[in-house]
Amino acid sequence: MGADRDARTLRDPFAGPAAEVRRALVRRIAATGALEDPAWRAAFEEVPRHLFVPYYYVSTFAGYERLWCGDRDPERRGRWLRGAYADGPLATRVRDGQLLSSSSQPSLMARMLDALEVRDGHRVLEIGAGTGYNAALLAHRLGDALVTSVELDPEITESARAHLAAAGRHPAVITGDGARGCPERAPFDRIIATCTPASVPEVWLGQCGPGARILAPLATGLLVLHVRDAEHAEGRFLHTPAYFVPIRGGAPARSPVPRPAGPTRRALDSDLFDFLLALTAGSLDPHEALSLWQREQRPERERFGVTVSGGRQWAWLDDPEGPYAWPLGATRDAW
Questions:
Q1: How does pLDDT run across 261-272, given as a tens digit for each residue?
Q2: Which of 10, 36, 124, 147 is the S-S candidate for 171 at Cβ 3.0 to 4.6 Å?
Q3: DSSP string over 217-259
């Protein structure tokens, strides 16, 4: 293992300076309260993020600017390396001005991995391979054989595999529709998604073992579901806001819902109200959502949850059987 690491260091001219900025990133993440688990801290300290983002795009007034490790300008190479270890998301694939894939903000990844509550021996399915960095963190924690990552785009799959190999990791990276899971590698103890579905793909439940946990972006939040069996799961949202690209394949995520017009619009410039609008889209009129928001005194994300039961799924406030519940996402038409 040590010889392999030495060989990779020789092939990576950025290994030395990257180690310094990586340690600084880990300190910043730990200062937010994440990475209390020593195993996850070790993963973030040892997995070289720069190998997963050999180039990325930064937004400018004129569009996107590409930074990459092979730039002849040392100043631009320095910007690339510092950006690779900044605590922010990185746009990694852009087509016709549209963001297709990104590497998530490291501190958000750390909070998601903490919330996943993995244990030694757990089998994990990741929906959305992205750069491969998240799969590398999981593989560092659990071992390559227990990690599966599914990605719809074969170019992204191939790129993720190459990045992982450069970092000395070889989990299963499969080209497929993440909305359908990965039945050939099931059952899983944990499923984590890095793209946003319109509702919970129920096939995921059927690929889970008893007591499994699913963590997925939904609306603009992070939902943690506890799986009872192939037809039943329930859970709440974390406090953390999260903005991920929509899942490709399966049912698409719905477009954002316009805010209600009127004198209160400026007062409602809140990401929590945006979350409520997204969670109730297609079920509640925006003015009904506004009324609920005001009546319940601007509820935080963690007061909301989702129940999946017998082919139905619904979102709710405070209580799954309470007065505030509505059909969710792609299931609304069949409600």
A1: 554 554 466 899
A2: 147
A3: EETTEEEEEEEEETTEEEEEE-SS----PBPSSSSPPPPPPPP
